[in-house]
Amino acid sequence: MKIVFVSVENGIISIGFRKVVSFAKMIQPDIEVCYITPSNMYSPVDAIVNFGNTSNDLPEKDTREVAKYLSKADMLCFSSMTPFADLTKKIVKYTREINPNTYMVWGGIHPSVYPEDAIKFVDAICIGEGEYSFKSFINSYKNKSNYLNTGNFWFNVNGKIIKNKFLELNKIDDMEKFPFPHYAENELVYKKEKGFVPLSTSEYISLIGISYHTILAIGCPFKCTYCANSVFSDNDPMYRKLRYPSVDYIIAEVKLALKKQPYISNVMFMDDGFIALPLEYLREFGEKWKSEVDLPFGLSGVLPGYVRTEKMEILTRAGMSRMRMGIQSGSDRILKFYKRPNRPGLIKQTANTISQFSKYMIPPTYDIILDNPIETKQDVVDTLKLIYDIPRPFILQIYGLRIIPNTTLANDLKKMNISLKDISKGYLIVEPTLANVMVYMLTVFKPPRWLFDYFLQRAEPYTVKQKKHYMLLFFFRTLWLLKRGIIGLIHMDFTELPGRLGWVCWKLGIIKFWRKFQNKKFNNLSMPNKSVIKKTYSAVNIGSHKHVDEIDQELTKSKFL
Description:
Blueprint (H helix, E strand, L loop, with lengths): L2 E6 L6 H13 L4 E5 L7 H6 L10 H11 L4 E6 L4 H14 L4 E5 L1 H5 L1 H4 L5 E3 L4 H12 L10 E5 L2 E4 L8 H4 L11 E5 L3 E4 L2 H8 L2 E4 L14 H7 L11 H14 L5 E4 L9 H14 L4 E6 L6 H10 L1 E9 L3 H6 L6 H12 L9 E6 L6 H13 L5 E6 L7 H8 L18 H11 L4 H8 L13 H21 L10 H7 L2 H14 L6 H5 L13 H10 L4
Parallel strand pairs: 1-2, 1-3, 2-8, 3-4, 4-5, 10-11, 11-12, 12-13, 13-14, 14-15
Antiparallel strand pairs: 5-6, 6-7, 8-9
Helix pairs in contact: 1-7, 3-4, 12-13, 16-18, 18-20
């Protein structure tokens, strides 16, 4: 039986997809792994020229070529997020026209958050954590046993929908038994006019850079309304408890990746809760990472309420070179609307804590969400003021509000009679309002207060009829991208820069040289006064939500921590 796993997204990170593939390969080692990338979100040319409007679709000709190739499989297992759902549906349709007997399975974020939609187009969908459930399904299907009762699966049998119960979430002991994610081994990528071709080292570097992406902890303690995690938590409240393997496990995984691709110069942990892990665990991680791996690493999903001086010191000494933290808004009202547990006061204080370590890291990245249809002028002003006040240097990752179906946010906006179609078509697209121009401007430089206040008075939410500043937005967006590139050059860090420049620098030994230079800085690492930083966490205005220390205690008491 020929089984093909297919990832559909603008890139090849696909961490969850790679994990499920590794489980499936335990049953059938010759599984084929394919990537369909309509555009390269890591291309600097696309970012500037296309203004963030990366394509989520393929030309008709290419879509049919993809279907023609995939139709040779007995089973197709798709993974895609909602922006690529329509493309996935087209590929399924065209494949069925060629070979009606191909069994279609769909997993990933979209079926998990919108199962009622996904199941209409395929034979089966996998919802939630798919590692063990996919293994069980493929094993049963191959052995022609009763696969229709597989947990975490829905089945479409001639239009009749079979909904199975959710399996119990993976526990810490389960994670220790996970095979390492499938990585850099016999993979194919679709190239226009060339078809599916082997994913070469060159293509790896083009689509993902010289970083290795992985996840240490599963779960998220919060239920932000715009996030798919809110749906996962509704399915099983235990999803809010962090689960993570031993330090030795994650180190072994990274070492294996380095054997396959020795040019890896940075590791990115894409967790939602890495910074929330217990202090003792992070101490062990820091010691073993420094002695056994000694690569710079970054955290992508930093939760403001869990940033502590002690944790920052441990991770910085271990080699943490970058952090990415969600701000989302500077408005207390909007943060409450999103059910974010962080308030502007806490965000400012956390940014102050991070800034104490700025000389040892690339400037921190802060996520911001623009173009919320319920924002008022005051909400916009509050967000701009927050960005203006937080310590520099920093990098802003700027997103337009994107609605994931079936999330709490989607349902809340529907109740307010706000059309979801009117909201940003892509998360990298923002409206060319003066307020949004100011956001890009503030990430490039900090203007004098009088000039900032002048423009602040004229800032309006995007729902207010106003002049559009397309050229200004293009200008500052270009400067914003150039600044990010310059920061990478200054720090001799090419791991997050798209293209092959990082690989060239690795090949020439430049990265190795710079790392030795950086190590001298860490050997003389002097930390900020802890008594001063400790004040950060006293009397912080976080609204009606529990203090972060209370949240810490709750997590620590759970059976997963």
